[in-house]
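Subject: Protein entry, chain in single-letter code together with its fold tokens

Area: Proteins and the way their chains fold up in space.

Attached in line: The record itself begins immediately under this heading.
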Amino acid sequence: MRHPEEQYLDIIRHLIEKGDRRVDRTGVGTRSMFGAMMRFDLSDGTLPVFTTKKVFWKTAVKEMLWFLTGRTDLRSLLQENIRIWTDWPLARYRKETGEEISQEDFEARILDDANFSMEWGDLGPIYGKQWRRWLDAEGREHDQVATVIETLKTNPSSRRMLFHAWNVPELDRMALHPCHMTYQFHVAGLGEEGVKPRLSLMVYQRSCDILLGAPFNICQQAALLAMVTDQVDMAPGELVWAGGDVHLYLNHLEQAKEQISRAPYAFPKLSLARRPDSIDGYRIEDFVVTGYQSHERIDAPVAV
């Protein structure tokens, strides 16, 4: 049976060999394709953490847990030792002040100075704000995630169980426009005697950095599905990932060639140590991942 990670490696191969050469927002340049899909069967507890390079799955899951808090401040991320969002506020600070501060010094000031953090560490109304505190024209807040979970419990055959982050009036205030923007849930096996219904998740990602972004995104989306499945007492089904503009940055080409030369190991397994009262109660210690084996890490620069 073909390893499911080969879907990911096939996309990288296609981009290297046939990707459309494009000028992009960052100025780095990409090789791009429009439209890609991957499917991962999670029914046996599999966690799709890619193995052809080391993926720091705890960091990926911590970011998902942070999204679920609804917070949008860099400081709360740095307190968890997560630095993957620093590049955007740091670039803004350097541009607007002219100070060539190092990333380490910038992060230290965010952590040590609350006023500095409020001015320069606000990421704007990004994912968590939209998922948990979408503000409508009348000033009412909408918790999209809680609504999905309630619908799964009360009307699991609904075709309206989704949340998204593409809030048009607030896009220009975001540090980065939403990439993984739509999450839709689907329940199969309703009414089958003696078995739990199977919950699947499909994610549409309008823009995907295939080398750096995809491994994190796939892992954390599978973790989200595990949490929601746990909350609604269903069995895990599939994670289906669909990409729009899927691209390989030109300064990632050599790293990508190294990665596709490696053979995947078996995916690890995930179990949850406990079931909190709500989706808000999970902590990184609840995620028990066993059997993760990978090749060495591959470093590559982030395009801002």
In short: The chain has two domains: 6-72+143-290, 73-123. The CA atoms of residues 37 and 250 lie 22 Å apart. Residues 6-72+143-290 form a domain with the Thymidylate Synthase; Chain A fold (CATH 3.30.572.10). The radius of gyration is 20 Å.
